[in-house]
Amino acid sequence: MRAVDIIVKKRDKQELSREEIDFLISEFTADRIPDYQMSAWAMAVLLNGMTDRETTDLTMAMADSGDRLDLTRIVPGSVDKHSSGGVGDKTTLVVEPIVSAAGLPVAKMSGRGLGHSGGTLDKLESIPGIRTNLSEDEFIAQLREHGIALIGQTADMAPADGKLYALRDVTGTVPAIPLIASSIMSKKIASGASAVVLDVKVGVGSFTQDLESGRHLARLMVAIAKLSGRKATALLSDMNQPLGEAVGNAIEVKEAISTLQGEGPTDFRDHCLTVAAHMLMLGSAVPTFNDGLALAARSLDDGSAWQRFRVLVAAQGGHLATVDDPSLLPSAPHIETVHAPRSGYLSQIHARRIGEAVVRLGGGREVKGQQIDHSVGVEILRLVGDQVTENDPLFVIHAATRGELERAKTDVLGAHHWSDEPVEPLPLFYDTIYTE
Length: 436
Ligand code: URA
Hints:
CATH topology of the largest domain: Pyrimidine Nucleoside Phosphorylase, Chain A, domain 2
Helix content: 40-55%
Largest sheet: 4 strands, mixed
Strand order of the largest sheet: 1-4-5-13
Low-confidence stretches: none
CATH superfamily of the largest domain: Nucleoside phosphorylase/phosphoribosyltransferase catalytic domain
Number of strands: 13
Shape: globular
Order of helices and strands: HHHHEHEHHEHHEHEEHHHHHEEHEEEHEE
Bound molecules: uracil
Strand content: 15-25%
């Protein structure tokens, strides 16, 4: 078999066999297919799609590119969550500790920034000293000792996703449902949790822009979870405007910390409580969704979730002093508040444009392997539907240079749209899909 023939077949809109998919993934993982061929193949998939059968085979090939952990004997009843990618989505940093505070093991394999969307690993690495590249043995040992771990793809677990993810990030090949589903579900299968909540984002700031494609992605991932013997719930959540205020690595960690301490923006807190409640239900920690909501809120308000976050940070080598005093986290030299240029109702705060502005500030990558600047970002102070008076604070830019700050001001101002008439606020969630 030759990689070029598989690329040509997908370019010509034909269905790949399981053998061809297995060959492509195993040879790429072994560094015998170069990045340029894999990128060309990813673009062919983006343009021509895959059948659900191909996507399932791709997921299994990627999950089997390394070891598949079975956590049922190591930490029984572990639960996991994964987002399909959004702007300001620091949910994992809050939800993992909430669920851990309720006594359920949480074992999560996350990703880095992808296109305009941020990644949990990049955010977490704003904390000096923290390690996300734990080996499989370290991951298991940490789960046994602390019941909570948050790692990236490794040479042992989901290596194919680690390599393909870095290419997709910088080749315009992220928003392909087969590539998203296989990326997410291969990590979930490899890292071994028995139940998973899938947070599928819908809207201009996500990779599934409308409800129909969000539902397709959600159903496909829930079906793959079932096939691999896992329970799954998929939530369809809004990603037209950023989630919470902070967009950028260190400032998102700061917002997660304040949410864990019982504060934080209301939309973000409510989003986290809902995701956590579903995880608590899937993990059988509570009988009903409302019990899950109440338990999750209690763990934020009584400080137990915050203490679990500190345990996670310390276990992975992070300097606790910097989370106990977030002013010690990376901070940009140029910070400026921008005020509303007019009065009116906010009709749109375009999440993708804001994510792109943060990438341009240096918070994401434009080429593979690029160092990112953890300190930069944007705080969006208002929500769609808010009535704003001219000169009210609208957003805050954190930039490395004056020039970049000025450019980001224009970009972010252009992402705000206005109406003279009242505008309905956006919902947080659209739908929930359960395993059949
Ligand atoms: N998260 C992932 O892990 N992969 C994707 O493709 C999108 C979001």
